[in-house]
Amino acid sequence: MLELDTVTAGYDRRAPVFRGASLTVAPGQSVGLLGPSGCGKSTLARVAALLHRPDAGRLVLDGTEVRTWRHRAPRELRTAVGVVFQQPRTAADPRLALADLIAEPLRATGRRAEAEGRVAELAPAVGLTADLLTRRPHEVSDGQLQRACLARALTLRPRWLICDEMTAMLDASTTAALVAAVETYRETTGAGLLVVGHDRVLLDRWCDRTVEWKDCLPAEANP
User: In whole angstroms, what is the distance from residue 111 CA to residue 32 CA?
Assistant: First the structure.
């Protein structure tokens, strides 16, 4: 279970972005988190991905409460979560070819020997052809780069996947292809999925259930 329990978070302790948000995702389940831009849902997603330390509240992954964040978190917790962001160009190292981008998590965790085989396995799964793997980010489209970013998020076989507005900048065909790739991964591995977005139609079609942002917050926050 991925459990976010009464989380308060932001970038200034005196003025948090939100207070007391709670949300759960079960293994194998896909949950959509629907809300307008600027409401705080992406900050909550970063907390869930161990990338942002909350001011208060708890994150529990598979029964283990997370107590340290980012690079200080235990490797077994960090690698349990994969994340795909909205803007692939800010999430990708412009110096790396797409193959190296996908293999980056393996090299960072001392598993370099697995890189070639894992890239060869993931590239077709996300719709990347061999010729694209040698190109750097500025030589491919946003959609192609987002495919590589999704592959990178799946490289370590995470038990939880967080897609934060993953398809917001993409055309309909690329969106459909990436959603299909995520669903194939979820179905074959039993991973839990949290999809953050503002498109109700997409979330309702994609996810087992859609939660509105206001329903994550305590009653007093919703007069």
Answer: 33
pTM: 0.94
Q: What is the rounded distance in angstroms from the CA atom of residue 101 to the CA atom of residue 112?
A: 13
For residues 90 and 137, the answer to whether their CB atoms sit within 8 Å is: no
Which of 29, 166, 143 lies closest to 84, judged by CA?
166
Residue 132 structure tokens: 């694209």
Tokens of 119: 């890239």
| Sheet with 2-9, side-by-side order of all strands | 18-25, 2-9, 56-61, 64-65
Supply φ then ψ for residue 137, to 5 degrees. -50, -40
Q: Half-sphere exposure of 143 toward its Cβ, with a 13 Å CA cutoff?
A: 12
Q: How far is CA 94 from the centre of its chain?
A: 20
Rounded distance between C-alpha atoms, residue 66 and residue 73, angstroms: 8
Q: Six-digit token pair at 65?
A: 């409460």
> Tokens 């087992």 label which residue?
208
Residue among 196, 85, 104, 139 nearest 128 (CA): 139
DSSP code of residue 68: S
pLDDT tens, position by position, 75-131? 999 999 999 999 999 999 999 999 999 999 999 888 999 999 999 999 999 999 999
Two tokens, residue 192: 């839990």
